[in-house]
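Appendix B. Chain record.
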Amino acid sequence: MSNTSGQLLRLENVFKKYKKNIVLDNISFSVNRGETVTLIGPNGAGKSTLMEIALGILDVSSGVVHRAKKISIGYMPQKVMIDEVLPLSVSDFLYLRPNTNYDDVAAALKVVNLSHLAGQPVQSASGGEMQRILLARALIGQPDLLVLDEPVQGIDIMGQQEIYGLIAKTRDETGCGVLMISHDLHLVMASTSKVLCLNRHICCSGSPEFVKNDPEYQAMMGRPMEGIAIYNHQHDEGHDHKHHSHSASESDNRHD
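Structure tokens predicted for this chain:
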């Protein structure tokens, strides 16, 4: 890895507005080497907007974003759409990533336990396999920072646990940092260093154990967390914090 300092990413007092709607309100946090920071919050909370700012895709309205010098970032989107008739193997799909060679692809597929699918059509991959292929793409070149947008979207519990395990194993073996969006605190608790509970502003933050017992987290999720709390992706935002604005939420859903 190219960067040797501990801090990979830092946001200071970041605001983001779309016209008159405040999407992100005074956000400050950092991601260090060897830690996983997980963003949790309802639809329309600004999670994807915050991730795009972290990646440098979006500019802030005000505030500062610091990235480590010569940082390399691996990004995993929620999903990709691939034309069914496109003749594309799993390896071919990974080669589409710029500056990728055979050894990079082989190493990434080995990490996610999919070497046996290298020559298969990428369209034939199951939902769980496709998420691992996207993770492999993000891992190519051993990035300093992994940015993962709901990496377990649309797969079963066993597949989710496997992917979270692969992410934690990669972080521990390479020392990379991880910034991740998730909807389920329970599943990521074991491998998450810090949780940011986001609803345009940071409602609460800290260790998973601290956040799951925080009244603001429980109010935002709509109920106390007893045992396993499964977050419903279509959950209504009626329980949001006082900063909630329903009309702004509807207009900003395209950004989150």
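Further analysis of this model is presented in Appendix C.
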